[in-house]
Design brief:
937 residues; alpha+beta; ligand-binding face of the semaphorins, domain 2; five-stranded antiparallel beta sheet; five-stranded mixed beta sheet; 21% helix; signal; secreted; immunoglobulin domain; glycoprotein; semaphorin receptor binding
Length: 937
């Protein structure tokens, strides 16, 4: 009884109370009471074992009395071996933290999380690594996944190389809020399988989305499983919803909140088709499934949907209901039809389609091997059904075409002149050479084309195509071409007949790698189609300008009253017109960009541009087109092109956000002007991204002005969203020049009260340290100044072999005592210079550290968490330099070392208890001997 009272008065009672409070707060949806204490204790120099244990939520959701690994038989689980969300694969820790310890049978000690963070990023300070662990500990437990359910990938920034750790530190500090917010939070599991048309919402997703909305960051769609390939997105801004096509699934989401009462339809491929697909040598997971590639609005109540069907395309209709308030989402399985020439066989093949007037125009391959490519028209009203396609007999109509985009664009005020413009790239062979080149094209057909009467029956009789040029003019006359068209976006204007055409192009060369954005006008495109035709005598000849007689009506024009009232249909075209367009579908001249070259380009970088959407923004000093560019590594670039004097263009990269954790190619992007949101799809998931995050640029007028973001302006208190109104308001913005001196007239007052971040950093002699400094503007240049200890003079710091200047800060190798001082990081943009961060570096002598460690060892003091990390600092460097020694092996050794230390520490206690037990046994035997009738043996 006395021992029990001692146990209740011990620190374990406080730990038990903290667990009970944590469980109660977790069940009620509140904040764990132990988490803030742990976060405070995990800061530099104030770490404690109790703080870590208080913040450990692992195993709190277990049934009372259940055994955790290493727990005693009475049901009290060992807190060091309880399941902890810090060591889950999907926990938001950078680099090697995601791939560690899940294979070990025993859980590592509580200090291994900051240890692993410091090993993943050796240049980061131990303090930052511990803050990473503290943030993960304070978040609370994850909801366990159902058995057999694969874990969904979380949308986080990719683990950068160890040589550039400051990028992760930048995101953790909130400089780049979008991926930072995603990095700092775990993601709930995917929902359970539901029948078609059922709704669901993940537990905790509402809080997760609200928190990200407050930080103006990304909002991921949490209702998806891993690897669903979100390639198709259909926006319905009138009803405020989004249709999402994926692998074997179709989702119905809300534009405001992707995770609120979403619905889904499960539409897999037939089992026999999947087996045939596997027998054909296709991959079972990435090809032999029903990948949704077509989502087009058929009418006000139905959406036309097509999927690859395991290399057997199939199409159907989705019923959405009549009224806006009516919640209906059902696939009519009784009206299914073949998807050949409507949907590609291969889920990875480029494809384009558009639905207009109940007709489906699509460009795709018509066979299993993907060699026969065609641009077709199908469906239509029952009384006026005309199936039309390109001529397969003429190889120079289409030659291995990869379709990118299809758009209906009116040409005149007469609806009979409306045309369908489609953009693609194809192979081309000039003359007798065997080398094939890739050319980007724009083609067009008339909407009222029904084919020929005696020739080109059920074939296009108005098909024409022209080349799109996107190149950098060279000084010697040789242009650098970006030949491969990747994406097309049409920016609407007040005149629906003249949208602005934006195209993303990449190079075909393996030596010169680059991407570019070129802008075209519809007037230039129409001028080329109204120009001379190209002529080719045979396959061994080159294309030349056709100088012969052109028949009437001009080939490529639509039958309408605009040209000839007597010709009411393409079947009324004369035979010479049909024969001419069959042999001359190519225009001789090419379409060039309006600026003469690319509006934006990226050369010799590690990524390629894949997607583009453009928003026309009205700013204080003019109107600007803001481009959002997706890449093949999961990043999104926010770019504005500014016109200068003499038609010069300035490229300004406003933001570069890492949206997805892995280097996943961005497959689709859609822009919602009503919601001011960008929806991004990839193989890893769907993300909703705000078009503007003005609060990330800073709290000063100068920072907001230097950002040059057309969405943002200084309102007198903060950098906020700019909305053009008729009322006169003091909004300060300078997108064209970004000069804060002319805009922020009180700039002298702000400089006198400079709000630069001030930090104190400690470094150990002969070790390396990293001084982080990241400018908020990508156009700023960084300069470092140092004020030595005991000196008031500042001098510019010159990099050398020991002091290395990087993009994210200053790396000092082999610290010396003379390196102590105050470091100033200043950003310069144009003529404006301001201090970003002020760092005070204190160098601790190596002998002082060794003496302190020796004294602690001699006195037998229990080292805290921070002291243990300093003792093992040299071990970390040794591990990093050894390529054959893995992180798991090191953590396993640390685990056994910690257990031996605990066993040695508790040795005298157990020895004393054993002696007490022996004494009791002797006393018991002695009492038995004294009893009457006892027989000695």
């Amino acid at each position: 009884m006395v021992q029990n009272k001692q146990v209740l008065k011990s620190p374990g009672r406080r730990l038990k109370q903290q667990r009970i409070l944590y469980r109660q707060s977790a069940l009620s949806g509140g904040t764990p009471l132990g988490a803030p204490r742990a976060v405070c204790d995990l800061r530099c120099g104030r770490a404690s074992r109790d703080g870590l244990l208080e913040a450990r939520p692992g195993g709190l959701a277990r049934r009372r009395g259940a055994r955790a690994g290493g727990g005693d038989r009475k049901g009290r689980g060992n807190p060091r071996r309880l399941e902890h969300p810090l060591f889950r694969k999907t926990e938001s820790l950078p680099g090697q933290l995601l791939r560690s310890h899940h294979k070990l049978k025993r859980r590592p000690p509580s200090w291994s999380a900051p240890l692993r963070a410091s090993l993943a990023f050796p240049q980061l300070s131990w303090c930052l690594a511990r803050r990473l662990a503290g943030a993960a500990l304070a978040r609370g437990p994850q909801r366990p996944l159902p058995p057999g359910r694969p874990r969904r990938r979380s949308l986080r920034s990719p683990p950068g190389p160890p040589a550039a750790p400051a990028q992760a530190a930048q995101r953790l500090r909130g400089v780049v809020p979008a991926p930072g917010s995603l990095l700092a939070r775990p993601q709930p599991a995917s929902p359970s399988s539901r029948p078609e048309g059922t709704a669901g919402r993940e537990s905790g997703s509402e809080e997760f989305a609200a928190d990200l909305l407050l930080s103006n960051s990304c909002i991921p769609f949490l209702g998806s499983s891993e690897g669903l390939d979100f390639q198709t997105i259909l926006l319905d801004e009138e009803r405020g919803r989004l249709l999402l096509g994926a692998k074997d699934h179709i989702f119905l989401l809300s534009l405001v909140d992707l995770n609120k009462n979403f619905k889904k339809i499960y539409w897999p491929a037939a089992k026999e088709r999947v087996e045939l697909c596997k027998l054909a040598g296709k991959d079972a997971s990435t090809e032999c499934a029903n990948f949704i590639r077509v989502l087009q609005p058929y009418n006000k109540t139905h959406v036309y949907v097509c999927g690859t069907g395991a290399f057997h395309p199939i199409c159907g209709y989705i019923d959405l209901g009549v009224y806006k308030e009516e919640v209906m989402f059902k696939l009519d399985t009784h009206i299914l039809e073949s998807g050949r020439l409507k949907c590609p066989f291969d889920p990875q093949q480029p494809f384009a389609s558009v639905m207009t007037d109940e007709y489906l125009y699509s460009g795709t391959a018509s066979d299993f091997l993907g060699k026969d490519t065609a641009f077709t028209r199908s469906l239509g009203p029952t009384h006026d059904h005309h199936y039309i396609r390109t001529d397969i007999s003429e190889h120079y109509w289409l030659n291995g075409a990869k379709f990118i985009g299809t758009f209906p664009i009116p040409d005149t005020y007469n609806p009979d002149d409306d045309k369908i413009y489609f953009f693609f790239r194809e192979s081309s062979q000039e003359g007798s050479t065997s080398d094939k080149t890739i050319l980007s094209r724009v083609g067009r057909v008339c909407k009222n084309d029904v084919g020929g009467q005696r020739s080109l029956i059920n074939k296009w009789t108005t098909f024409l195509k022209a080349r799109l040029i996107c190149s950098i003019p060279g000084s010697d006359g040789a242009d650098t071409h970006f030949d491969e068209l990747q994406d097309i976006y049409l920016l609407p204007t007040r005149d629906e007949r003249n949208p602005v055409v934006y195209g993303v192009f990449t190079t075909t060369s393996s030596i010169f790698k680059g991407s570019a954005v070129c802008v075209y006008s519809m007037a230039d495109i129409r001028a080329v189609f109204n120009g001379p035709y190209a002529h080719k005598e045979s396959a061994d000849h080159r294309w030349v300008q056709y100088d012969g007689r052109i028949p009437y009506p001009r080939p490529g024009t639509c039958p309408s009253k605009t040209y000839d009232p007597l010709i009411k249909s393409t079947r009324d075209f004369p035979d010479d017109v049909i024969s001419f367009i069959k042999r001359h579908p190519v225009m001789y001249k090419s379409v060039y960009p309006v600026a003469g070259g690319p509006t934006f380009k990226r050369i010799n970088v590690d990524y390629r541009l894949t997607q583009i959407v453009v928003d026309h923004v009205v700013a204080e000093d003019g109107q600007y087109d803001v481009m959002f560019l997706g890449t093949d590594v999961g990043t999104v670039l926010k770019v504005v092109s500014i016109s200068k004097e003499k038609w010069n263009m300035e490229e300004v990269v406003l933001e570069e956000l890492q949206v997805f954790k892995h280097s996943s190619i961005i497959l689709n992007m859609e822009l919602s002007l009503k919601q001011q949101q960008l929806y991004i799809g990839s193989r890893d998931g769907l993300v909703q991204l705000s078009l503007h995050r003005c609060d990330t640029y800073g709290k000063a007028c100068a920072d907001c002005c230097l950002a040059r973001d057309p969405y943002c302006a200084w309102d007198g208190n903060a950098c906020s969203r700019y909305a053009p109104t008729s009322k006169r308001r003091a909004r300060r913005q300078d997108v064209k020049y970004g000069d804060p001196i002319t805009q922020c007239w009180d700039i002298e007052d702000s400089i006198s009260h400079e709000t630069a971040d001030e930090k104190v950093i400690f470094g150990i002699e002969f070790n390396s340290t990293f001084l982080e400094c990241i400018p908020k503007s990508q156009q700023a240049s960084i300069k470092w100044y140092i004020q030595w200890s005991g000196d008031e003079h500042r001098e510019e710091l010159k990099p050398d072999e020991r002091i290395i200047k990087t993009e994210y800060g200053l790396l000092i190798r082999s610290l010396q005592k003379k390196d102590s001082g105050i470091y100033y990081c200043k950003a310069q943009e144009h003529t404006f210079i301001h201090t970003i961060v002020k760092l005070t570096l204190n160098v601790i002598e190596n002998e002082q550290m060794q003496n302190t460690q020796r004294a602690q060892h001699d006195e037998g003091q229990v080292k805290d968490l921070l002291a243990e990390s300093r003792l093992r600092y040299k071990d970390y460097i040794q591990i990093l330099s050894s390529p054959n020694f893995s992180l798991d092996q090191y953590c396993e050794q640390m685990w056994h070392r910690e257990k031996r230390r605990q066993r040695n520490k508790g040795g005298p206690k157990w020895k004393h208890m054993q002696e007490m037990k022996k004494k009791r046994n002797r006393r018991h035997h002695r009492n038995l001997d004294e009893l009457p009738g006892a027989v000695a043996t």
